[in-house]
């Protein structure tokens, strides 16, 4: 039962700045994930293990924002900042929790340990997604931030550096 339905007179406070930041991060994360899943070998292997039409929803409770991803024809696609029916849902309990995690102030493992987020769906697929997200965060965040939020950084090779530049200049702006 949703609190909004039980107590309609209680309205959550508005946080327009945090909401805007999380929407921007969802946009960048979606485009970056799509681009990296097509080019990084480790992420590509993980995504290939998922069945076609497998969908992922990132949501901030109670009223969004959202990010909806789906595997289509062997490729991971961002379907937008919308809510949809998903096989795996990652729910952030509050906008403040999502803001802390997505701005790199706390890492995903710490956020999960502090019960700031929950997972609904197949646990094996969730672990696969987390492995992918760690690599996506490695590409999206500069090293001084990535060191704080990831337990271990992969080696930065010339290929990975070129992929990072591709993601920054083509993947995020154009979804390529």
Mean pLDDT, rounded to whole units?
A: 89
- How many DSSP H or I helices? 8
* Poorly predicted tracts of residues: none
Distance between the termini: 40 Å
How would you sum up the global shape? globular
- The fraction of residues in strands falls at 15-25%
Structural class: alpha+beta
Rg, please? 16 Å
Question: Can you give the helix content as a percent range?
Answer: 40-55%
> Largest beta sheet: what is the strand line-up?
3-2-1-4-5
Main sheet specs: 5 strands, mixed
How does this model look, in words?
This protein has 176 residues and is an alpha+beta fold. The protein has eight helices and five strands; from the N terminus they run αααββββααβααα. Strands 3-2-1-4-5 form a five-stranded mixed sheet. Strand 2 and strand 3 form a beta hairpin. Helix 2 crosses helix 3, helix 2 crosses helix 6 and helix 3 packs antiparallel against helix 6. The longest helix has 24 residues. The protein is globular and about 55 Å long.
């Amino acid at each position: 039962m949703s609190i909004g339905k039980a107590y309609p007179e209680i309205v959550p406070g508005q946080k327009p700045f945090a909401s805007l930041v999380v929407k921007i991060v969802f946009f960048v994360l979606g485009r970056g994930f799509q681009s990296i899943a097509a080019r990084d070998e480790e992420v590509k292997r993980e995504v290939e293990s998922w069945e076609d039409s497998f969908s992922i929803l990132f949501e901030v409770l109670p009223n969004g924002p959202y990010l909806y991803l789906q595997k289509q024809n062997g490729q991971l696609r961002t379907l937008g900042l919308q809510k949809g029916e998903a096989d795996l849902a990652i729910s952030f309990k509050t906008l403040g929790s999502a803001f802390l995690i997505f701005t790199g102030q706390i890492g995903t493992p710490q956020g999960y340990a502090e019960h700031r987020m929950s997972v609904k769906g197949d646990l094996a697929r969730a672990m696969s997604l987390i492995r992918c997200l760690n690599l996506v965060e490695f590409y999206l965040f500069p090293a001084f931030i990535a060191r704080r939020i990831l337990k271990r950084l992969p080696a930065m090779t010339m290929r990975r550096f070129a992929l990072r530049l591709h993601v920054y200049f083509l993947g995020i702006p154009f979804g390529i």
